[in-house]
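To whoever picks this up:

The parser on our side crashed when reading a file containing two proteins. I've narrowed it down to the boundary between the first structure block and the second sequence. Both blocks are reproduced below exactly, byte for byte. First block:
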Amino acid sequence: MKKLLSLLVLMAVGAQAAPSLDHTVFDARNETTSLAEFRGQVVYVDFWASWCVPCRKSFPWMNEMHQKYQAQGLAVVAINLDTDPLLAQAFLAEVPAHFTVRFNPEGDVARSFDLLGMPSSFIFNRQGQLVQSHVGFYTNKAADYEQELVSLLKE
C-alpha cells in the first residue's frame, strides 16, 4: 500500500523530476545551507510566506510535531518565500517557529517543487524520497498529517 501511495504521489507531481532534498537555501544569517543535511531523518518541508493566512494555523501544529517527534528523527523545515526578509521576521515575531526555518527569496526551490498553493508541504522518508505532499493546511486533517509522519518514523 505504501509503495502504491508513493507511486501515486510521484505521478501527481508530473513528468518532471520529483521534488528532492538536493537544494540550497539560506539560514537566518543569510548563509547558504543544504536541505540534504536532513537526510537520514523523516523530513517535513513546508513552504510559507508572511501573507499566507493558513500558515498561521500550520505553525503551531509544526511546533507540536517538532516537539513530539524530533527525538524519533523528524525534521520540520519551513522555507519562507518572501522577497523582503523583514516580512518574514515580523511573521515569526507573531507566530514563533521552534523548528528549522530557511529562506528562498528567489523562489527557485519553490519552482522546482511545482507549488500549487500556500502553504505546501512535502514529506520525505529517511532515504530522502518524496512520499507525500499536501497543498494548504486544514486543522481538521491535522491528525491525518500526524499519522503520515508517525508511520514513516516507525520504518
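<<boundary where parser fails>>
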Amino acid sequence: MVCWPCLLTLEGDDELIYLADESEFINECQELIVSDDDAVVDSNGMTYLIKAVESDLQLVKTERVFSTQEVTQLIRDHEFSKANVCLTKIEFINIPSAIQSLVYSA
C-alpha cells in the first residue's frame, strides 16, 4: 500500500513533483506523457512504477527501496536544477520530512 505523500520522479529529469495523495497523482499524470521509467517514491522509500491498465493508472510496487540519504540526493538534484538553494544546507532526518519539503517548491 502506498504511503502518501510521495514524489513523482521523471525519467531523465531532475525535476520532482510532490504528490499529496492518489487524486493528485492521477491529476498530475493526466497532464504528462508518462514513461515506463517514471516512478513514484512514497514516504517509506518504496518505489512504484506507473502502469496504464485500460483507462486507469496503477502503481506497481518494485523491489527498489530508497534510503533517506538517497531521497535527500534526489531533492538536492531537483533544487540544483532550479539553481536557487544552497545544496549543502539540504539535510533531512527521514523520508517523510524530505518529501514534505517539496510542498511549497512549485
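After patching the parser it read the second block fine. The first helix runs from residue 22 to 30. The helical segments are 22-30, 68-82, 95-100.
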